[in-house]
Each structure stands twice: as C-alpha cells, then as structure tokens.
Specification:
429 residues; 4-stranded antiparallel sheet; alpha+beta
C-alpha cells in the first residue's frame, strides 16, 4: 500500500510532468460514481499542481489563457479559474505518464496533454478515490504530515496522550492516521525495530516521557518516524517509491534498505486489527505467526500441516481405536497435541439384552457405530421374522422401557407409555 513517502514522491512526479506540459482534457475510465465523481472542468488549456499531506494528494487545476486572450487583456490582470480535488491512492494507486494511445489498464482518471500524452491515475484494485474540495481531511481523520509538518505532528501527538486510543499497543496506534498520518505497515516495523521497542507495549508508556524536542544523534520514536520517512523519499531507483521521471527502477534498492519488514530471519505476528506485524524474534512470542520467512516457497507456506488417514477397503464395522496424527507447531517451535476426532472416540460397549414376547436379542454394539442398526428377530408363532429398523438411542430407550414394563415376565404384553404415563398401543404385536 502506498504510504506517506510514496505519495510525497507522487506529488513531486506530478509537478515535474506539469512543468513541461499543458493539458487540454480530463477523462474518466468509467461512469461517475460516489468514489469517482465527475470533474466539472472543461477549459481547453490548463495546468496541474500537486501537494501531498500524509496519505492524500491535492491536485489543483489552473486555467491557462490563450495567447490572443493575453494580448487583448494587457491592461487588465488575468485571474485564472481554479479547481481542487483531493485524491487518495487506496491499496495500489499510482501515477503514470504515457502516450495517449498507450494508456495503461485500470487508468481511472486521465489528463490529456496538447502533445498527445496522458498523465493517468492507475489503480488496479479500484480502492482509490477523489472528492471535489478545497480543504484537507478534518483533524479527526488525518493529522499533520510527518514529512512536511514535523513540529505540528510532534505537538499534536504529545498533547493527545490522554486519549483512550493510547492505551493500545504502539504497533496499533501507529496505524491511526489522525495521529501518525504517513505511517503504514512497513514503516512501523522499520521504526520500532531500529529503536528496539516491543510492538505490543502500551503506546502511552512509550510516549508519555518524551520531551518537546528530540536530538538528531539520539532520536526518539517520533523523530525516528520523520527520519525513516525521509530515507524512503531520498531513495533513488527503489521501485516502490516513484522516481522523478515516472519509470520504476530496480526494486532491489528498496529491499536492501529494509532491515525488518519481510526480511528473512525476522519474527512476525498478527495484531488485533488483523495486520501482520514484523519485529525482532524476541518480541511477540506466543502470538499467531502468519509468515515463516520472506523467501518461503508456496508449497511450504503455512505452519499447520495435517495428514489424513486414507480409508481402507473392507474395513470392519466396529470403530477401532485410531489416533489421528497431525503436525502442528506453535510460534515457539514446540509440538502441539492434536485434537482427537469425535468420530474416532471409542465408547465402551455394553451388552444389550432385549426381552420381548417370544423373542430374545443379545448383541454387543459400539455406540459410535449405532447410527442405523438392523435387528433381526428370531421367528416364532407371534412374529414373522420381520426386520425392524430403529436408531440406536431410540432402541436403547425402548429396551429399558420394556424391562420396566414387563417386570421380568416374558408372558406379560409389552406396552408403551407417553410422557404423561398413559398407556398407549403395544409396540410389538
């Protein structure tokens, strides 16, 4: 996801292109919507200017007069018409500058130049959005920029420590854009790792004793946020941030700069927001680990592997005492005991004796297999050797009732009673 440094370089890239080209038209990829409203701008010649603040970019349209209009209005001062939009990049937004006939796929917003080039906002996941406004987002949504407004950012955080949000772990508070407006997942990991701070320690305990100013030699966490962001801005040819000419460079430069985030040998865990937190191995023990290493193969991803036992042909009807083996390892590397399957649980079998008029049934059945049981009665004068099918629980209940009602007398007819104790029709006839 583009963070504060990426949007700062994107605004720099926009200003670099706008200084060399004049634009003539604004186009949308699809029909206007709430996320992508129509831009009411129809001037034949205009310029663009970008300004970044946190994870937002404000783009300003300014009318450019024709030469004939300038000559005819030499005595009067020309006041250009302007329009502002506020743009966010979402999860995968970026800028691109190409020829008009080579526009990239998923270009949601396009600005055509007079020399047949197009400056585009490309968003493959369509999470980015823009709104028509002259103002930045309110303070309750986005705080001061760590990159360009560091003093305001530091003052804003230190004056807000009485808020309940600072009771949370520092790794979760650093994703709150109303206080840390430029910080994202990879930035918080790098900042906390360089200062050797436990990511799950309370944010208030870490920030409450900080002075109003921090030195460059021994930076605290707020100063380190400013320092790390500028390190990313100053990277050249990194691939992740935008280069001034709009061409992606070697991504290996950014990977070499990383010290903790998705680096092999580092630990990781999942915070309460469901985001993966990368940290030193001495922190986060006992929490769920999402990724093993950065270079793990796809076939080896995940730390839970289970082996299913294949069913054998001609298996006996009675359930055998089978233990299901599974390889489950927690974050500490210790082997966990597998859960026993409910179906594999062995229930002690008891002899069941069914005493009825003219028929006796003795069998030893496993209750775990007594789902649909067929009992064949011995034929005699009163029974025609028919097969009666009943469920195990119902059968056991009937046997107990027969014993109680018959009183041990085989010649006594067996009857059924309802819940109120009233005698119903005989069960066997």
């Amino acid at each position: 996801m583009p963070e504060g440094p990426e949007l700062y370089k994107a605004a720099t890239f926009l200003n670099h292109i706008a200084s060399q080209h004049i634009f003539k038209k604004v186009r949308l990829l699809q029909k206007p919507s709430d996320k992508h409203p129509k831009i009411p701008w129809s001037k034949p010649r205009f310029s663009l200017a970008g300004e970044a603040r946190g994870k937002e970019i404000r783009i300003t349209f300014s009318e450019v007069p024709l030469k004939d209009e300038v000559d005819s209005k030499k005595d009067t001062k020309f006041v250009p018409e302007t329009l502002n939009i506020l743009l966010t990049f979402g999860m995968a937004g970026r800028f691109a500058f190409t020829k008009t006939d080579e526009i990239q796929k998923h270009s949601l917003l396009m600005f055509d130049t007079i020399d047949d080039h197009t400056f585009s906002f490309v968003d493959t996941r369509h999470f980015g959005r823009w709104i028509l406004t002259d103002e930045w987002s309110p303070p309750n949504k986005r705080g001061p920029s760590i990159i360009t407004e560091y003093d305001l950012f530091r003052k804003h955080v230190l004056s807000s420590l009485d808020k309940p949000v600072f009771d949370k772990p520092i790794c979760e508070v650093m994703l709150e854009q109303r206080y840390f407006s430029c910080i994202g997942n990879y930035l918080r990991a790098e900042i906390l790792y360089r200062l050797d701070i436990d990511p799950y320690k309370s944010a208030r305990k870490i920030l409450e004793n900080l002075p109003e100013k921090s030195s460059e030699e021994n930076p605290d966490i707020l100063k380190m946020c400013h320092k790390v962001c500028w390190e990313v801005v100053n990277l050249k040819g990194s691939g992740k941030p935008y280069d001034p000419d709009g061409i992606y460079g070697d991504h290996g430069v950014f990977e070499e700069w990383l010290q903790c985030y998705m680096v092999e040998g580092m630990g990781n865990s999942v915070d309460k927001k469901g985001r993966t937190m990368w940290h030193s191995n001495k922190f986060g023990k006992g929490k769920h680990q999402r990724h093993s290493t950065k270079l793990a193969d796809k076939s080896e991803k995940g730390n839970v592997k289970r082996k299913r036992q294949s069913k054998k042909k001609n298996a006996p009807k009675l359930v055998e005492d089978v233990t299901v083996k599974s390889e489950m390892v927690d974050n500490t590397g210790e082997e966990m005991k597998p859960k026993r399957s409910k179906r594999s649980k062995k229930v002690k079998s008891e002899p069941v004796e069914d005493v009825t008029e003219g028929a006796r049934v003795k069998t030893e059945l496993d209750l775990s297999e007594m789902r649909d049981v067929k009992i064949k009665l011995e034929p005699d004068e009163s029974f025609d050797g028919r097969v009666i099918k009943r469920r195990s629980t119902r059968l056991k209940k009937i046997v107990n009732e027969n014993k109680e009602n018959s009183g041990g007398d085989e010649n006594k007819p067996v009857v059924r009673r309802n819940r109120r104790g009233e005698i119903t029709s005989p069960y066997f006839r």
